[in-house]
Amino acid sequence: MHVEFGDYHVGDIEFVAAFDVDGKKVGADIAEAMTASENNTLKLTDVEPTGVEVQRGPTLDGLGEYYRETIVESDIQPVDVAQALRDAKADVLVCYLPVGSQEAVEFYAQAAIDAKVAFVNALPVFIAGTKEWDEKFRAAGVPIVGDDIKSQIGATITHRVMAKLFEDRGVVLDRTYQLNVGGNMDFKNMLERKRLESKKISKTQAVTSNTSAELSDRNVHIGPSDYVEWLDDRKWAFVRLEGRNFGDAPVSLEYKLEVWDSPNSAGVIIDAVRAAKIGLDRGVGGALISASSYFMKSPPEQRGDDAAHEAVEAFIQGNLER
């Protein structure tokens, strides 16, 4: 969302290491791996070979039922991730594991701490928002931005804005839903409902925290709904809000959002990475509240979008520690 984020331009981001468990990606150059196996997003540009080879990370709980049916897991032994990060002289580790990978995310979070590398947690496993992990990152002097990336113009940010608009205009919000379908491996993985608990919590609180309306569980349904293979990396969100305005007259708003999922996320992650790097440069350990509140669905502290934006700008200028 920022071409220049403090002293860092988008073009200053360099890939120095990568980790995966997919047999078609491990051992490949990043330029090749980014279009390998089930990756099915649109092509934005030609990418020359980087000289950086994808290394074998540990699997742990990273592969769910549908992943195991779809990909071939690499038979190469996992590397020492913390040492690989040190060897690569990495500054920031971005975690984009499949939804439901609790053990695997915790492993990479600890590897970042051990390697003294800033951590950006892009998925809904709660790390930055927990006291235990925040204290670990603070003690190590390592910054973290998390949890669960909020896309550039996605279902969450638009739903938040519309729910708040209802409230600001004096409309009582009675009920709402957000249904999401897509055709990438993220959506296929989420067909395994037992991996979805934290995802539903994250998406729901991201919307409801932006309004004072107290809605029962019955009147809020937010989460991934189905996998449609021919959509590829496109995501379609169907959102409906119902309420009452003057005189309790009924009012409803319904909209459909169509996006390419990966670029929509990338537009925010490039800012989160640079925020983490600035935190590292300044020696700030623990959760970066400003960046987390603006860029993530489940930050340690939920803020209104305008307040979160202002805090990020203050952080960039050095007027806010975290």
Low-confidence stretches: none
The CATH class of the largest domain is identified as Alpha Beta
**What profile does the largest beta sheet have?**
4 strands, parallel
Q: Give the H and E element order.
A: EEEHEHHEHEHEHEHHEEEHEHH
Number of helices: 11
User: What is the architecture of the largest domain at the second tier of CATH?
Assistant: 3-Layer(aba) Sandwich
CATH topology (level 3) name of the largest domain: Rossmann fold
Number of E-state strands = 12
**Mind telling me the C-alpha Rg?**
20 Å
End-to-end CA span: 19 Å
Mean pLDDT across all residues, rounded? 97
- Shape estimate: globular
Helix content: 25-40%
Beta-strand portion reads 15-25%
If strands are numbered along the chain, what order do they take across the biggest sheet?
A: 5-6-7-12
Instruction: Write down the domain tally.
Output: 2
CATH superfamily of the largest domain: NAD(P)-binding Rossmann-like Domain
GO molecular function: inositol-3-phosphate synthase activity
Pfam family, one: Inos-1-P_synth
Family: Belongs to the myo-inositol 1-phosphate synthase family.
Enzyme class: isomerase
Protein model, in words:
- It is a single chain.
- The chain has helices at residues 30-33, 65-70, 81-88, 102-115, 131-140, 155-168, 185-189, 197-208, 261-281, 289-295, 305-317; strands spanning 4-5, 8-9, 18-20, 54-56, 92-95, 118-121, 143-145, 172-182, 220-227, 234-244, 250-260, 286-287.
- The chain has 2 domains: 4-148 and 263-317, Rossmann fold (3-Layer(aba) Sandwich), CATH 3.40.50.720; 155-260, 2-Layer Sandwich (Dihydrodipicolinate Reductase, domain 2).
- The chain contains 11 helices and 12 strands.
- Helix 3 (81-88) crosses helix 4 and helix 6 (155-168) packs parallel to helix 8.
- The chain is 35% helix and 20% strand.
- The mean pLDDT is 97.
